[in-house]
């Protein structure tokens, strides 16, 4: 039976605001990518130092106040580890625990596609899970809770929007009838049953208890936030509906409604070793990446913002791979450079060249300084374009951080061309596309304004160093 009054609070880890989540995501991900694999204690101490530096401008975690130490710990464990699933532990037979980078973190580092990262997170999330400790986990298991909440919400919205009436459901209805309802959380109620009951209660003017406050509403709001960051839903103050630009992603969510990567019911949590496996296996499953998402499209229709200047030009399109995202960013910057040079002197526009497909140069576009360097307007400008996709607009405030990967050839070019080398960072967001310029990154690195460290080392050797050949 489905009884709406069967209310049960099934919570998730509380995150930050949507903008903060995306502003800090590259910090978390690159921190994990840089350190892993790593012994647990070393990983913890290094992360606390990195986060202390980013959040409070000191790498001496132990000198922070108790309140600030708690904030840093929450970013490290609650958000980066538990909510975002960027890393997971494995305890070796020796008894030493090592921390590994999750598949989803690797995807994020390689692709700079935030919406797909959050899609993957929502697809993997389920109740019960290993995000909670002790009695809450045992209670959920004793109540036979078994649900993928994000997939269920998407399935219900899809069912509602497939009806002839195309009635929108409210956030409060989703919260009360679904995310806070024990019968639904146990996996015993179909989407049609929930929808029909909501429509019946509307018809009979039955008013349900309004969920509010940090205790009863926050965990529901968090789930809506994550679905929005995944670009799956859109909302206003009252209603929630599916994003019409994400049909492929929505189809995957519908398919995964009853697909559980993690079986919480196969563990005996009264046994210490089984309990350890429960939490360890959950983190590995949660951080895995769904390969189906490699073939989905994320579409934004927005306008361009260039270093504070707004260009009221339509920009849209679909990207489905790192190559496409990179091409899209290069094409955008190429067009912007052509317009900038054309506005300076029409005859010089042919000096703007798109060279991204030419290997070995260390830059994507060759342009000229033009109006931005009046004393040397016809000097060459070398531009490397780095693009990323996110839902919210980057805040560019004191807490905001970003990271990008550059090749050895790009870094050599940065040193070679000095003040004439630039990185154009393109942020495709749901509302606007931002383009910012970082000039002379090599000097900024020498001055300590940016941090650059190698992630791949090339080792060249000859026959003199070979100790033994085991096979011809």
Molecular structure report:
By secondary structure, the chain is an alpha+beta fold. It has 2 domains: 18-295, Arc Repressor Mutant, subunit A, CATH 1.10.10.2090; 300-444, no CATH class. The protein is 42% helix and 15% strand. The protein contains 17 helices and 15 strands. It has helices at 18-35, 40-56, 66-83, 103-111, 114-124, 135-142, 149-162, 171-179, 182-185, 191-203, 213-216, 218-229, 247-255, 272-286, 322-344, 408-417, 441-446, and strands spanning 38-39, 87-91, 97-101, 169-170, 233-235, 239-242, 298-299, 302-306, 309-315, 318-319, 353-354, 365-368, 380-389, 421-428, 432-439. The strands form 4 sheets. Strands 9-8-15-14-13-12-11 form a 7-stranded mixed sheet. Strands 1-3-2 form a 3-stranded antiparallel sheet. A 3-stranded antiparallel sheet has the order 4-6-5. Strand 2 (87-91) and strand 3 (97-101) form a beta hairpin. Helix 1 packs across helix 4, helix 4 (103-111) packs antiparallel against helix 5 and helix 7 crosses helix 10 (191-203). The chain is globular. The mean pLDDT is 91.
């Amino acid at each position: 039976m489905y009884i709406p009054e069967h209310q049960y609070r099934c919570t998730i880890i509380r995150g930050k605001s949507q903008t903060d989540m995306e502003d800090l995501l590259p910090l978390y991900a690159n921190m994990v990518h840089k350190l892993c694999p790593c012994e647990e204690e070393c990983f913890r101490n290094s992360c606390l130092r990195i986060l202390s530096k980013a959040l409070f401008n000191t790498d001496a975690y132990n000198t922070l106040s108790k309140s600030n130490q708690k904030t840093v710990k929450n970013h490290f464990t609650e958000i980066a580890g538990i909510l975002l699933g960027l890393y997971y532990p494995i305890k070796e037979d020796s008894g030493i625990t090592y921390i590994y980078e999750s598949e989803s973190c690797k995807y994020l580092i390689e692709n700079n596609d935030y919406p797909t990262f959050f899609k993957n997170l929502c697809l993997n999330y389920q109740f019960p899970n290993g995000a909670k400790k002790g009695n809450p986990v045992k209670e959920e298991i004793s109540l036979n809770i078994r649900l993928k909440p994000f997939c269920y919400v998407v399935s219900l919205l899809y069912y509602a929007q497939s009806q002839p009436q195309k009635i929108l459901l409210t956030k409060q209805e989703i919260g009360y009838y679904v995310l806070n309802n024990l019968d639904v959380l146990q996996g015993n109620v179909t989407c049609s049953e929930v929808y029909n009951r909501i429509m019946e209660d509307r018809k009979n003017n039955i008013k349900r208890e309004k969920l509010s406050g940090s205790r009863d509403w926050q965990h529901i709001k968090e789930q809506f936030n994550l679905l929005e960051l995944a670009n799956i839903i859109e909302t206003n103050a009252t209603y929630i509906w599916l994003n019409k630009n994400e049909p492929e992603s929505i189809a995957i969510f519908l398919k995964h409604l009853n697909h559980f990567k993690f079986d919480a019911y196969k563990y005996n949590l009264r046994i210490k070793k089984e309990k350890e496996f429960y939490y360890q296996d959950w983190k590995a499953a949660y951080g895995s990446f769904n390969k189906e998402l490699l073939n989905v499209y994320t579409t934004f229709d927005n306008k361009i913002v260039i270093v504070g200047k707004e260009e009221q030009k339509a920009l849209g399109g679909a990207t489905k791979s790192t190559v496409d995202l990179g091409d899209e960013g290069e094409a955008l910057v190429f067009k912007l450079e052509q317009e900038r040079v054309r506005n300076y002197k029409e005859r010089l526009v042919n000096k703007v060249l798109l060279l991204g497909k030419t290997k070995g140069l260390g830059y994507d576009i060759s342009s000229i300084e033009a109006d931005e360097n009046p004393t040397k307007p016809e000097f060459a400008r070398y531009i490397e374009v780095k693009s990323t996709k996110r839902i919210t607009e980057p805040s560019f405030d004191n807490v905001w951080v970003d990271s990008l990967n550059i090749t050895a050839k790009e870094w050599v070019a940065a040193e070679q061309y000095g003040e004439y080398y630039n990185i154009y960072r393109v942020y495709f967001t749901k509302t606007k596309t931002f383009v910012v310029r970082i000039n002379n990154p090599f000097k900024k690195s020498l001055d300590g304004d940016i941090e650059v460290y190698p992630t791949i080392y090339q080792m060249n050797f000859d026959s003199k160093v070979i100790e033994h050949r085991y096979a011809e």
